[in-house]
Amino acid sequence: MIEFNNVSKIYNNNVTALKKVDLRIERGEFVFLVGPSGAGKSTMMKMLLKEVEPTEGNIIINNNIEITKLKKSEVPFYRRKIGVVFQDFRLIPTMNVLENVAFAMRVIEAPLKDIRKRVPIMLSLVGLSTKYKSFPHELSGGEQQRVALARAIVNNPSIVIADEPTGNLDPETAMGIMEILNDINSAGTTVVMATHAREIVDAMKKRVIAIEKGEIVRDEKRGLYGYED
Amino acid sequence: MKINTFKLFVGDAGKNLKRNRTITTASIATVAATLFIVGVFLLTILDIQQLMREVESKVEIKVILKDDISNSQQNDLESALKATPGVVNVSYETKEQALVNLRNQLGEKNKALVEGLDKDNPMPNSYIVKVQNPQQVVSVVESIKNDPGIDTIKDGREFVDKIISISNTIKYVGIAMFVILIGVSLFLIGNTIKLTVYARRREIGIMKFIGATNWFIRWPFILEGAFIGILGGIISTVVLYFVYNFIYAKTTAGLLLVELISPSYVLSTMGLEFLFGGIFIGVLGSIIAMRKFLIV
Fold first, then answer.
1. Using an 8 Å Cβ cutoff, are B80 and B140 in contact?
2. Residue pairs spanning A and B at CB distance below 8 A
3. Has residue A135 been placed in a domain?
């Protein structure tokens, strides 16, 4: 569960990114964040990763973790509870597919035996079993994003955050990624995805939260994208 | 930290070094080259110091006695000399010895010059006084110069003054150059390491996002830094050893009198210093260079 309570953000250059946002996302929900560029979607995502601090208000995860109050030393352990996918994939270029996914498990100091067992399962889940030895630069965009997805979920996070995960992909590849995200969601993981992809939002019929100028302007249970392209 | 985790770090460091071969090579070369230059400088300074010490040890005061000095006067003078602070050795040179020494100095060719002097020896009796260091020559001379048995004192004051001033100049210039050289070396090595970290700043950011602790990220970099330092240290020591050995052989063959620092010093003392210096710089450089990228 994710809770934004009266969250505002004013950046140092006096740009107001969020204005008193109140939001509740239940466990297991699939939520699209939509809205024009610069509306505040990214700021919300960054707050969930504790990359950006709210100027005002607080954010509570899983009923008991108040992100704003986390100590510096607690941040890494908090981030392990959240899987994250970016538009630019952000794989480690010097590691191959297998190592990239395994790395997320090594970070939490999982036993080697568990890593050996679980990583191949994740790779087959995203359909990359045969390419486990490839390096990121040898993969297509869609394949890279699938590696990133495998990495995001390998530690069984309760929340997956995806910031325009299909932004660099063609529509067909994008739908493949969405299927995987949908599967992850069906298994009980909360998914929050910021996107500009109308077809995807319209096709998935999930909860849609529209943000404009730092405020929530629309929140529909089974919504549509609702913006002209 | 678990042992297994540490093993993985070592593996990671190895892989990273291999995969970033170009930059690894550049870093090792920089460390080796700077340490080599530092080594050349240190050896030069040490050799000059050695030389100065030898020259300084040759400084002596010649106290020439009057021919009509009485036995008791001479005994008093000798014990006074021995009691003077700073004096380490007093030896007596008789007229006869002085003549023999002169003859030896002149050699076969100029033998004729001293021929026939045996009958009427013009050389004086004297005391040769050695002092602890050249700075003490003046005070020793001051304390005995009014002794009635002394004819003249040859203290080579100009020579001594020159030695002292040269030795001081070398000391200060040496220290200044050394400080500058170390500064430049640290800057160079630091920059190279910064480059290796900078090339992987995105990687560090990614690690932070998937929940790696700072130390988890740091360890492989630290090990890489240490490895670069060790290799740089070894390479510079080996090259320095061979170069110095060559020079040493040439020099000692030409000038038998000069005793230079032995080449084994390069392998033992200096090699160890470079090894630890290299590790220290590599590790510290990595930690410092990473600081900025760990704040995410």
1. no
2. 52
3. no
Q: Is residue A139 part of a domain?
A: no
Q: The CATH number of the domain where A68 resides is what?
A: 3.40.50.300
- This complex has an ipTM of 0.87
A20-59 per-position pLDDT tens digit: 999 999 999 999 999 998 899 999 999 999 999 999 999 9
- Cβ-defined contact of B209 to A92 (cutoff 8 Å): no
Q: How many domains does chain A have?
A: 1
pTM for the full model?
0.73
Q: Does A76 contact B at CB distance below 8 Å?
A: yes
Say if the Cβ atoms of B206 and A92 lie within 8 Å. Answer: yes
**B residues 120-179 lying closer than 8 A (beta carbon) to A:** none
Residue A61 pairs in a beta bridge with A2, A65
Q: Which residues contact B10 (CB under 8 A, 6 or more apart)?
A: B223
> For residue A40, what are the domain limits?
2-81+157-220
SS3 state of residue A191: strand
Cβ proximity of A90 and B206 under 8 Å? yes
Architecture label for domain B60-155: 2-Layer Sandwich (3.30)
In chain B, what are the domain boundaries? 3-55+163-294, 60-155
Predicted confidence (pLDDT) per residue in B133-161, tens digit: 788 888 888 888 788 888 888 887 788 78
CB neighbour list of residue B172: distance below 8 Å, 6 or more residues apart: none
Dist CA B182 CA B255 (whole Å) = 32
Candidates B197, B204, B207, B210: best to mutate against A (most CBs of A within 10 A) is: B210
Question: Best mutation site among B24, B206, B214, B291 for testing chain A: the one with the most A CBs within 10 Å?
Answer: B206
A133 within some domain = no
Pairwise CA distance, residues B71 & B94, whole Å: 14
